[in-house]
Amino acid sequence: MIRINLKVVLLLCAAVVVVTLSLWTRCGDVMLASRNRKNGGQGAEWDTGNKKMPSGQDAYGGDGIEHGGSSDLQGYEEIDCNINGEYSIGCRKEGGEIYMPFSFLHKYFEVYGKLATYDGYERFEWSHSYSKVYYPKGKYDPRGIFMYFENYNVEVRDRVKCVSATEGVPVSTQWESQGYYYPTQIAQFGLSHYSKNLTEPEPRRTLLEDAERDLLAHWVVPNGATLSRVLDSHTGSHVVEFSSPDSVTSGISLKLDHVLDFMLSLTFKLAVNSSFTVVLQSREKRDQIFQLHYTCSDLLISAQDQHVYHGIGRCGQTQPWRRLTRDLIVDLHKGLAYQNKLKRKLSRSKLKVTGLTFHGSGHLDNLTLSTSEHLSQFYDAAQWLVHHQDSSTGGWPNPVRRRVAPGMADLEPGWYSAMGQGHALSVLARAYHHSGGDNSYLHSALAGLRPFDVASSAGGVLASFLGRIPWYEEYPTEPASFVLNGFIYALLGLYDLSTVAPAASHKAAQLFRQGMVSLKQLLLLYDTGSGTTYDLRHFMLGTAPNLARWDYHATHVNQLLLLATIDHDPLLTATAERWIGYMSGKRAAHN
Ligand SMILES: *[C@@H]1O[C@H](CO)[C@@H](O)[C@H](O)[C@H]1NC(C)=O
Ligand SMILES: *[C@@H]1O[C@H](CO)[C@@H](O)[C@H](O)[C@H]1NC(C)=O
Ligand SMILES: *[C@@H]1O[C@H](CO)[C@@H](O)[C@H](O)[C@H]1NC(C)=O
């Protein structure tokens, strides 16, 4: 039944699509695409007046349209389309053809469409999926970009509460609203910045202060406060020493008028209770001023009106020099979102940095504003992984309870994910490579292999399909869930480590080879003939399959295409090609 319907519908729509209601666009009244367009092309061919349909709905094409020149679009009749004998919708009959509303087709077949105007005329663009295939540009190199993560903006996502100013990494609210450190997300943050470093243009950097010049030319130092240049014995370079007690409410400050660059970096040592504030001003509404406060505290984030607070951790003069990098736009964005005051995306071009003020006392150096600081952000993620690994198990714990599917036991806080472990290996392998062989990254990565040998039922990530085929579990559920994309990310992490440190990581190479064998054995169990499943819960639980959304399906495809550059088994390419076909509506043949 459905197959016949599909054919009829596709046939009808190939000619003309009448949109009665569009979920994707509000850009006009007339939403009619004509098969006669090849004769036309002058945008003003149709009357776009607000004509009303007999039903009283807004007219999206229809009666009132005046046709420019000759047209074979004569009138049409309203006709009921009876759907599988279950319900009816309004259609249109025109000669021997039937037209169905696109809003119906969208829901019925989960297809997508939008009006687009270019080359001087408007057309309707139909698409079967909404996701994009990324074709690798060459053989995958673990020292290079990770997948297509240069397109990721992890910290901007809604499910990121903020970027911690003590750790420099994102805090997730995906499964727990107060926020928690989610190793997978932190690794993705690191991998995206590593990849952006390799793909984006060179940043512009403005050095605001390095204590090598006359300080007082720049700084405003009120009565009662002090500021001087001193030689730092530890670094052997000049640094700024300042003191601005509580009684000096204005603090010592720098007046700025800086546009476009919003990555602030500085090296500092601050006394207890010190803080600094960055002032941002709207370039359009000069009275709109925001203050980003960075305080010596463990506060994650708080905000009130124009004031946003991030804690930079405990301070004290005995602490070593610390380098802090902040994306001021992200910090402001999160402060407004924290108060539910973010109306639309903040635009970098609409703001400027107008000042910087220090309170308390301490030392600072190398204060800069730059377009980007991708490697600092990457290393913040790598450092976080080194410092927050469970040294006894080698795992990066997920501190939240997680329900994967009804019928599977909840994961209790502290579970490990093969995807999180694998992503961490991808970060640490790159940090080991980029740092020129810093062993702290290698040791952490090697320890991170241990959960791959421990059964998922015993606190590790290793499951077994029918007791025979080993599998690395993104979610170590009971029974096993066999999530495909997380497994492949784990394989990539293993491959990255084994490539970057071959002598030290035979274990990673062996886990990778074993995983590739499993992947090839199970891959086609995910193929539905028109898409893929996200996991194998249908087999494990005897329930309906968990179909992969198009973005996950596209991830499967992109992962296979990437693997195919390092493993030439035709199964990988042939499967990827078929799965790409599903994204434009091609289906496997039936009997
Ligand atoms: C990438 O990192 C290198 C150092 O490895 C640096 O010189 C370069 O400016 C960075 N480029 C970008 C776009 O971040
Ligand atoms: C500031 O940067 C210079 C040049 O890279 C470096 O020599 C100096 O040690 C840095 N200052 C601090 C406090 O780290
Ligand atoms: C820091 O601030 C807290 C709270 O305002 C105060 O109780 C404490 O005495 C201050 N510590 C120092 C060393 O100034």
UniProtKB/TrEMBL annotation:
N-terminal signal peptide: 1-20
Membrane topology of this protein: Single-pass membrane protein; Single-pass type II membrane protein
Main location as per UniProt: membrane
* Presence of keyword Transmembrane: yes
- What keywords is this UniProt entry annotated with? Isomerase, Membrane, Signal, Signal-anchor, Transmembrane, Transmembrane helix
EC annotation? 5.1.3.17
Q: Which domain of life is it from?
A: Eukaryota
Q: Which GO terms describe its cellular component?
A: Golgi apparatus
Matches recorded under InterPro entries: C5-epim_C (IPR010598), C5-epimerase (IPR039721), Glce_b_sandwich (IPR059154)
Give all residue intervals belonging to the D-glucuronyl C5-epimerase beta-sandwich domain: 237-361
GO terms assigned for molecular function: heparosan-N-sulfate-glucuronate 5-epimerase activity
Q: Name one GO biological process term.
A: heparan sulfate proteoglycan biosynthetic process
Family membership? Belongs to the D-glucuronyl C5-epimerase family.
Name of the molecule in the record: heparosan-N-sulfate-glucuronate 5-epimerase
Q: In which pathway does it act?
A: Glycan metabolism; heparin biosynthesis; Glycan metabolism; heparan sulfate biosynthesis
Question: Which intervals hold domain D-glucuronyl C5-epimerase C-terminal?
Answer: 390-580
Q: State whether keyword DNA-binding applies.
A: no
Q: Where found?
A: Endomembrane system; Membrane
Reactions listed under catalytic activity: [heparosan-N-sulfate](n) = [heparan-N-sulfate](n)
Q: Name one Pfam family in it.
A: Glce_b_sandwich
